[in-house]
């Protein structure tokens, strides 16, 4: 299975969706990375086929029943969404205006791809459909995250065991 641009409850706060939630709630600036197509002066936001983790799990179950061992399958989201549209949707769900800036300065995001997409035709031809729509999945995830703000802090994701091991190693060296 190939899948990309997953989102869902308990996602690391550095990822795009939780980052936008946190910044929208705080009224902070959200940077939307763009590109300027050749021959144009208009900045175009990057785009993705976002997919909720629950839909990915449903795709796994679908393939366990209908897939063929050794075959490759692309699991894609319902539709392509540009990152500005995504950020505006999130801000709307949290009930805050989106404070954003467009940026085509790739130095702040080395290796950043302006578009991530897979072709999901193979699974669609097998009868695969997403059990939960993109908008419903995203709305539910945003509402859950707002209700559980502890998931928006980086500190929550610090591995205390790694810190303990480092402290023991430092003590052992003394």
Core attributes:
174 residues; three-stranded mixed β-sheet; globular; alpha/beta; 6 helices; 15% strand; UDP-galactose 4-epimerase, domain 1
What does it look like?
With 174 residues, this protein is an alpha/beta fold. It is 40% helix and 15% strand. It is built from 6 helices and 10 strands. A hairpin with an 8-residue loop joins strand 3 and strand 4 (44-45). Helix 1 crosses helix 3 and helix 3 (83-94) packs across helix 5 (134-147).
Task: Describe the secondary structure blueprint for this structure.
Blueprint: E1 2-3, E2 6-7, H1 16-26, E3 30-35, E4 44-45, E5 47-48, E6 51-52, H2 53-66, E7 74-75, E8 81-82, H3 83-94, E9 100-103, E10 115-116, H4 121-125, H5 134-147, H6 160-173
Helix pairs in contact: 1-3, 3-5
Distance between the termini: 48 Å
CATH architecture: Alpha-Beta Complex
Which runs of at least 5 residues are low in confidence (pLDDT < 50)? Answer: none
Largest sheet: 3 strands, mixed
> Quaternary arrangement of the chains shown?
single chain
SSE order in H/E notation? EEHEEEEHEEHEEHHH
Provide the CATH superfamily.
UDP-galactose 4-epimerase, domain 1
Structural class: alpha/beta
- What is the overall pLDDT average? 86
Which strand order spans the largest sheet, edge to edge or round the barrel?
4-3-9
What is the fold-level CATH name, i.e. the topology? UDP-galactose 4-epimerase, domain 1
